[in-house]
Amino acid sequence: MYNKNEIIETIKMIQEQNLDVRTITMGISLIDCMDTDIDKSCEKVYNKIYNYAKDLVKTGETISKKYGIPIINKRVSVTPISMLVGVSGGDPIKYAKTLDKVAKDIGIDFIGGYSALVQKGFAPGDKELIESIPQALAQTSKLCSSVNIGSTRAGINLDAVKIMGQKIVEAAEITKDRECIGASKLVVFCNAVEDNPFMAGAFHGVGEADAVINVGVSGPGVVRAAIAAAPKDASIAEIADIIKKTAFKVTRMGQLVGVEASEMLGKPFGIVDLSLAPTPAVGDSVAHILEEIGLEQVGSCGTTACLAMLNDAVKKGGVMASSRVGGLSGAFIPVSEDAGMIAAAEAGSLSIEKLEAMTAVCSVGLDMIILPGDTTAEVISALIADEAAIGMINSKTTAVRVIPAIGKKDGEPLNFGGLLGYGAPMKISKLKPNVFVNRGGQIPAPLNSLKN
């Protein structure tokens, strides 16, 4: 039950502190769309997604009007398309164009699942799909792609790591006339989760139901405001409690929206992902939360400790509010999408090395980082390997989404607009890791993978 005070408080969060439901994402299984004829398979894919999700946008708008809750994006995630390519063969870009067309026809913002899971090697269809990613992203507007190259149980597929460095450069190169936008829709994962509603990494896992409704809630501004209202001499334990209580309230809103959408669409409710996903808007920054806790600017000493506490408190508050908390749930640190991160990077207080340390304790990884246009594929591959190693050893999800600023002058920014934001290239070591990257093979799974 929701009482009067909770409703008033929630209205204030929405109007003054940028609280929103970042996304309603319908996950759809395409297992029954597999066919040895790629054209028939594409037809089945289009028809199933259209029939299941044709009312998704209308449902989101109805709920938003009913409760006064902003619902920013409506999205669809699907079974990793490499599995369909493995059965049908043919040009994977046919699937990419089919997904993009149905996304446009039903009016959603993004569709994810142009993906491959290759943490332990390549199955039929995986290499073909990966090779096609740059062109697929260049020839579509709503499609998002991801590749899982490692896990705690499997280790890291260094052959896939090498290829993905190349594909990121290619995706940026092909779309350099559009601010290298292709690379911004490509994520490389370690320990990818099957129920993530956030793009660009969302896909519908093979262990999921035929269709499911997942909700992603975001409220960095709400958390920052709650901390700002606390006494300046409050202990760090008291700050953690404030964050937990705030996360509880935000998750309750997500649960309400998820249950309502599930009933209206006739699909089971999956999870609420309580990820503090920032935007470039003023007052909607994870960096500003960390600074409110007591840092002069994010990137200073103490940043990783504050982020660890924040991430843990968010999760603890969320699981008390809902038994359906899932996805990634924590704090995102996408540089170009966070006003505070942008400012810290421009001031020089935030480096890639510090960001890498921060990823050991946050939700995802090196996210939306713009690199100099001359960064080599081998350097990007080695960066992917470093980040995957953090995820593998710590049994957590990590990812890399970086955008080489192809064709830009030194210091010249990329501006993606909207939620993707903007930013100038960050410095990265140009020392060559080529011998390591070219060794190939499998980095063995760590000892802590043996948990049975």
How would you sum up this structure, described in words?
The chain is α/β, with parallel strands linked by helices and 452 residues long. The chain has two domains: 25-190, Alpha-Beta Barrel (Anaerobic Ribonucleotide-triphosphate Reductase Large Chain), CATH 3.20.70.20; 216-449, Anaerobic Ribonucleotide-triphosphate Reductase Large Chain. The protein contains 16 helices and 13 strands. β11 (414-415) and β12 form a beta hairpin. α6 runs parallel beside α7 (158-174). The protein is globular and about 65 Å long. The model has no long low-confidence stretch (mean pLDDT 91).
Short description:
This protein has 452 residues and is α/β, with parallel strands linked by helices.
Furnish the topology, listing elements before pairings.
Layout: H1 4-17, E1 20-28, H2 38-53, H3 56-67, E2 71-78, H4 81-88, H5 93-106, E3 110-117, H6 126-138, E4 143-151, E5 155-157, H7 158-174, H8 181-184, E6 186-190, E7 211-218, H9 220-228, H10 236-265, E8 269-274, H11 286-293, H12 303-321, H13 339-347, H14 352-358, E9 366-372, H15 377-394, E10 398-405, E11 414-415, E12 422-423, H16 434-439, E13 442-443
Parallel strand pairs: 1-2, 2-3, 3-4, 4-6, 7-8, 9-10
Antiparallel strand pairs: 1-7, 4-5, 5-13, 6-10, 11-12
Helix pairs in contact: 2-5, 3-10, 4-6, 6-7, 7-15, 9-10, 9-11, 10-12
